[in-house]
Structure formats: C-alpha cells, structure tokens
C-alpha cells in the first residue's frame, strides 16, 4: 500500500539532523509562496461572490489554524454573506445566512467526500483504503456502520463500554485533579476502539495508547503544505506518512491475528469478517472511523462533563439515571455501578433519558466547531444571487446558525432548556439535509454511558490551575477545529470518588 521510497524517506527524515529538517521546511515554504502569490485569479466574474481581500496563501494560512476567526473576518472584511478565496488553483466559496444554509444542505450535487478530502487533511490517507474510494466501496462502509448500530450489536456493547469506563476511571484514583480535555478524551478514544475495531486492540491499553499517540501525530502534522501539496514529501507530510503506516500495520496485525486464531468474537471486526468484506474495506472502516468517532464524540464528552461541573442540570441527570436504575435493576442485588448500569436495556437508554438528550444537543450546539465542506459536482448553481461554479468547493460554518444570537439568544451560554429553533436547519449538530452523522446512534449511547458513570461515580467541580473553584466554565475555542479545547491550564476537574463501587 505504500511505496518503498516514501516510507524510506519518512524514516530517513525522522532520523535526520535538525539542519536538514529546517532546510527542507524552507524549501516547502518557498514552493508555497511561489504558487501562493500567483494563485489569485484576475477578479471575480459577474455574479460571482466577492473575493476575500489579499486572498493569497499567506493571507489564508489562518484557515488551517484559526478557522473560526478567519471565516468571521472574511464576512466582516467583505461585508457579504458569501465570499470566495483561492487555495492554489481551487476556488473556495464560504456561504452563510438562512437561504444559503437551505441551499447548501439541500443541493444533491454538493458532495461531502470530495469536499472533505481536499480541505480537511486530518484523516489518514491510504489510497484505496481511505482515499480514492469507489462509490460502491464508500456505500459498503456506510452500510457496515449502520450494521454496527443495530439493536443487537449496540446492546452487546453496553457492558464492555461500561467496563472500559470502570477500568479507566479507576486509574484516576479516589480523589485528585485532572484536565477533562485530556482524561475524558482518552476515555472516549478507548471506547471508540472498543466499539469500532476489535477486542485484540481494545483489551490492550498499550496498543490503545499507541494508536492515540499516532493519531495525535496526524493531527499535529496537518499543515497548509500537507493539505495543499499532499504529493510533496515535506517534513509534516513525512511524519503523517510514517504515523499512517504505523496505524495501518497495527490494524492489519490485529486482523491477521483474528484470522489465524479462527476464534469468533462478538465485535465489529468479526462482523466485517463474517460479511466477507474485502481486506481494504475492513482496514479502511477501522482506520478512518476510529479517528472520526474519537474526535467528535471525545470533544462532545469532554465539554459535556465540563459543563455539568457546577451546573444545575447535574442533579437532574443524576435523578434521571437513578430512576433508570430503579426501573430496571433489582434493588436486592449488590452490583458495582458499571454492572448496574449495564443492566439497563438499550431501549431505556434511548427513550427514557430526555435530560441527557437535551444536554447532548446543547453541547453539540455550543462546542462542536464544525465547518461543513462540500464540492459542487453538478452544474453551476445560484445561492443568494451569486454563482457557485461547477467544481468549486463550498463551505458552511456551523457557527453561522449555532452561535447566531437571533436564533439562540446569548449563544455562548450553556442552556439545555432552550427551545428548539424554528428557522429552517436551525440545528445541525448531527448534520442536515441529505448528509447526517451516520454514527450518531452509537455516539449518543457512548455519551450517555460515560456521563452516567461520571456523575454517579464521582463528585466533582471545576477549578483553575491553583485548585480554586471557577465561577463559570471556560468558553469553547472554535479556532481549535478538532477538539474546541480552551486555553491549556484554564480548567480542571477536581474529583472525589463517591461511595459506589465503580
């Protein structure tokens, strides 16, 4: 799957001297500047969105590092609800407003796969595995994700997920302080490996930690150069290539181990093998969805637990879960908390938890810094009187509606009791139109199980780095496009284990 030359180059670069790495980095910068300053097209044609002033590569670099700020500045500088800029030779158009939002989510020619592939750069790229996929193979992966979320499979995941929670939470000790954007995220990564791969990986904490480290390398290695010039073996690209190869090897070894053993296990890998899927489909499913699931659900879980630190809703959630236990668990049985929660059936978790549902919904609104990315694979289309040409990339920032004070008064305030927005596509936390989060049923379940274990297993509050209680939770950083993480050191959870055995 990898050319020997590129893999050798990656290994050589990582072992090279600092001087050699700096020289290569300067070469990449020169190439970017050479192409970048010549990428601005000669004025907008009639009916086209206005160009962002100074739309050369140096000016658009914040798109990759401070996207929320970059897009807001774009609307401010142009004074328009739509604007465009060039990314090398590609046209990128950013849209906002109610009518544009409706058109964006309803257009059947706006393709998610093509848009995300070009503009994100944070998913491991392996030709034929996570990129350059045939439509049939993409549909097959989507079908398998739906199979993972069938009642029988999801019900079977409840106990293992809760056991993962128990094991990880035990490592936190009876009391202490930790950063929720590290510890809660690590827990969700473990759970994602459990839900979307196999027991061979999920039962090995060392392998899980290694996978997380490698995926973190991919995140940190996503730069303008790796997105715009993926064919150029620059420093960051070589590191990403190396990390992707290591992840690929770990997954393939787990698959080989299962096939050699001949032992059938009740996990996602076994489901994929039983369906006789191609090896590329199996590897692509696990490799791509591990990171997609861990990032999105990990971000939401970290913020949900943080917001509940000193919020009035905390008592409501505890009461709701305790009612579930009263309804579905025998009071005469002395089980640990994780065992008691695992006795609650899937149907109850999904239909008898309105408080948790409202909390998840509000957390997704305020702390999911998503920018929807599409490519117009159809004919030219008009949005708000402006032409979106065929082949153009189209962006819609979720902040346009989720942080809009006209739709959500005082939008930065965490308020699970908010009434649902009445405007079209007024809430897009799980996507909208023809594109919705295909893993949302699994994600909801994971969030509810983790939150229940946390609130019943611990007493906790928000503190600063000095251990003093915070007056309010930190504000999500929408410029952090992966985790929405606030400034490091601004928020910690001070916890003490409850009387219940985890």
> What is the number of helical segments per DSSP (H or I, 4+ residues)?
22
Return the average pLDDT rounded to an integer.
Answer: 86
Question: How much is the radius of gyration in Å?
Answer: 23 Å
Low-confidence stretches: 1-14
How many β strands by DSSP? Answer: 13
Main β-sheet description:
6 strands, mixed
- Order of the strands making up the biggest sheet: 1-2-3-9-6-4
Task: Give the CA-based shape.
Answer: globular
Tell me what the structure shows.
- The protein has helices spanning 4-15, 18-36, 57-60, 62-65, 67-78, 98-106, 112-119, 135-148, 151-170, 180-196, 199-202, 205-220, 224-228, 235-261, 268-274, 279-307, 313-328, 337-342, 346-351, 354-367, 399-402, 440-457, and strands at residues 50-51, 82-87, 90-95, 110-111, 175-178, 371-376, 381-383, 386-388, 393-397, 431-432, 435-436, 458-463, 492-497.
- With 502 residues, the chain is of the alpha+beta class.
- It starts with a helix and ends in a 5-residue tail after the last strand.
- It is globular.
- Residues 1-14 have low confidence and may be disordered.
- Strands 1-2-3-9-6-4 form a six-stranded mixed β-sheet, with helices on both faces. A three-stranded antiparallel β-sheet has the order 5-13-12.
- The chain is built from 22 helices and 13 strands.
